[in-house]
Amino acid sequence: MAERSQTAPEAGSDMGNDDAIGGNVSKYVVLPTGYCGQPKKGHLIFDACFESGNLGRVDQVSEFEFDLFIRPDTCNPRFRVWFNFTVENVKESQRVIFNIVNFSKTKSLYRDGMAPMVKSTSRPKWTQQICPPWMIFTLCCLESSCPGKCGTQTRQRLPPKNVYYYRCPDHRKNYVMSFAFCFDREEDIYQFAYCYPYTYTRFQHYLDSLQKRNMDYFFREQLGQSVQQRQLDLLTITSPDNLREGAEQKVVFITGRVHPGETPSSFVCQGIIDFLISQHPIARVLREHLVFKIAPMLNPDGVYLGNYRCSLMGFDLNRHWLDPSPWAHPTLHGVKQLIIQMYNDPKTSLEFYIDIHAHSTMMNGFMYGNIFEDEERFQRQAVFPKLLCQNAEDFSYSSTSFNRDAVKAGTGRRFLGGLLDHTSYCYTLEVSFYSYTIGGTTAAVPYTEEAYMKLGRNVARTFLDYYRLNPMVEKVAIPMPRLRKGKPPSYKHSLLRGPASNHPNGKGDKKSSVNHKDPSNSF
Ligand SMILES: [Zn+2]
């Protein structure tokens, strides 16, 4: 999360020397006390020595129960939230209780129904379905042959009733998250994670694949390197006309993953990119009118290492915008230099800065903005989140807030809000690690990877409403490609029924403006 919520400090807590954890467990075999032979089936093997992996220590409490310790962020023991590890050498029907015992936070969405993510080698999607009570702990139900016929409702996480989050007297009154699980396939390797992983390598492959398409409105460059020499990518998405010498540019600048454990940030960011490079008429209009600059991964080392909040050297980069060092915070330094350069260029108008995060205690998507003395500027700043609320069912304007706390002075949103002039708006976009509620109901809908990406598509689309470019969409849509008879282009639905044409002022009724069931009409 980018910022502290109103009530919960997120300073982390010290671990004490006796809990010092040096690195990730590496194929660590848990053998029963006094057992000296070769490991047998059922002697669990834990591993977190892979990209974005995190598990620092395993203590066996009983035959069935294990205390698991998150490895703290590198060079900063105060942050312990992200975990991501595998378990193998299981026995069929082996039941276990895992206790994650050293979270650095107290408030958690685990109280509200969030559960760890799980997948296994034979079921590699992070998905699961609710099972009947007799197999409730298993990962059984992705197959149609499931004897429980439980394929009625898709879930992405373990059933919440198997997850308990409580203050534990056995662990120095730390908050502990315990969950029960039953392994069902002996050959499978099971993987558990705090949220859907999204690694540095995955993002590099994604960007490589986009680059190979040779789109004349998509540009990728290396803006800098991290301390460990990983790439700081900068994407530019715009019509080539806007990059002509002397052309005036309206720029939207987007950043993500400054906090490495906040993986939903990357899904949202990918959703934005996918939409902006698409042939959707709205995307074409946006490319004609705006220049999107996107630095999708501000903390590639932290992502690679499986940190939650910090860089390799233990810095929370989102507290160093005031004076980033070229050697200690090189990625932040590179992005800040570029933004200042654009700000000083009379031909460039930097209109939006959006930094994407994930939130560990709140539901929905929402934003943080700045407070300004100028009342009109303050009001204008509220327009974008209001429009986004109309476009995205999971985005909450009521959770959106504006502040100028001293403690957040080093965040991108606060720093750039102070630097840029009155025509620029700077936001932190937060999205829940867990779920959203849809207007009028209280039922929590767990986020899927796709739902995070959809929020990204809706963020991109909202610029159309903000700039009142809706009439332009109809113009670019007129010379539509000839398609086979009887099959209208899929985007036609959105032109007819979407908010773009219905509500040119972006003030339409939320329900009528969004059709979330029809994929051809979703963004
Ligand atoms: Zn954050």
TrEMBL record:
Pfam families for this protein: Pepdidase_M14_N (PF18027), Peptidase_M14 (PF00246)
UniProtKB keywords: Carboxypeptidase, Hydrolase, Metalloprotease, Protease
Main location: cytoplasm
Domain annotation Peptidase M14: ranges: 196-467
Stretches with biased composition (Basic and acidic residues): 506-523
Region (Disordered): 483-523
A GO MF term: carboxypeptidase activity
Matching InterPro entries: Cytosolic_carboxypeptidase, Pepdidase_M14_N, Peptidase_M14
Catalytic activity, as annotated: (L-glutamyl)(n+1)-gamma-L-glutamyl-L-glutamyl-[protein] + H2O = (L-glutamyl)(n)-gamma-L-glutamyl-L-glutamyl-[protein] + L-glutamate
Cofactor(s), names only, from the UniProt record: Zn(2+)
Cellular compartment(s): Cytoplasm, Cytosol
CDD domains for the chain: M14_AGBL4_like
List of catalytic residues: 430 (proton donor/acceptor)
Family: Belongs to the peptidase M14 family.
Name listed for the protein in its UniProt record: Cytosolic carboxypeptidase 6 isoform X3
Organism: Bos indicus (Zebu)
Gene (name only): AGBL4
